[in-house]
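wait is this the right file?? whatever heres the structure
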C-alpha cells in the first residue's frame, strides 16, 4: 500500500530508539507503524510488529509485556512455518530470561533457537548461541 515505506521506516526507527534507551519514542514509532499497517493483513507484518513491541518492552525492562509480545510473534511465525523468525524470537527470549536470572527458561529457549538454526544451516545464529 501507499504507507509501506513509511511503516517500514517507523518499525526500524522504533527499535533504534529503544536500543538508544528512548523507550517512549520507540513506542510512539511502533504504534504509528501499527496504525499505518492496520489495513495490511500480512501475517508476516503482524508477527514482525509483535516482535518489535516485544523488543521495546524487553529493552524497557517490562519483561512480562515483552514475553507476551514475543509469544504472539512466535505463534504467528509458527502458523507461517517461518523458522528464521521463530528462531530469532527464541533467541531474544533466551536473552530476556538470562537478564532475569531464569536459567531454565533461558536454556530451553536457547536450545529451541539453536536447533532451528542448525536445521536451516544458519551459521550466524549457530555461532551466536554456541556456549
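ok assuming it is, sequence goes like this
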Amino acid at each position: 500500500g501507499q504507507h509501506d515505506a513509511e511503516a517500514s521506516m517507523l518499525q526500524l526507527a522504533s527499535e533504534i530508539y529503544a536500543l538508544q534507551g528512548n523507550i517512549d519514542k520507540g513506542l510512539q514509532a511502533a504504534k504509528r507503524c501499527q496504525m499505518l499497517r492496520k489495513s495490511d493483513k500480512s501475517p508476516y507484518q503482524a508477527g514482525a510488529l509483535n516482535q518489535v513491541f516485544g523488543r521495546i518492552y524487553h529493552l524497557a525492562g517490562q519483561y512480562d509485556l515483552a514475553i507476551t509480545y514475543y509469544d504472539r510473534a512466535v505463534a504467528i511465525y509458527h502458523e507461517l512455518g517461518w523458522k528464521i523468525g521463530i528462531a530469532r524470537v527464541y533467541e531474544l527470549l533466551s536473552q530476556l530470561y538470562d537478564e532475569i536470572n531464569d536459567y531454565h527458561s533461558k536454556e530451553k529457549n536457547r536450545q529451541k533457537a539453536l536447533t532451528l538454526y542448525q536445521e536451516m544451516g544458519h551459521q550466524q545464529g549457530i555461532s551466536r548461541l554456541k556456549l
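The chain has two domains: 1-72, 82-131. so i think its the right one actually
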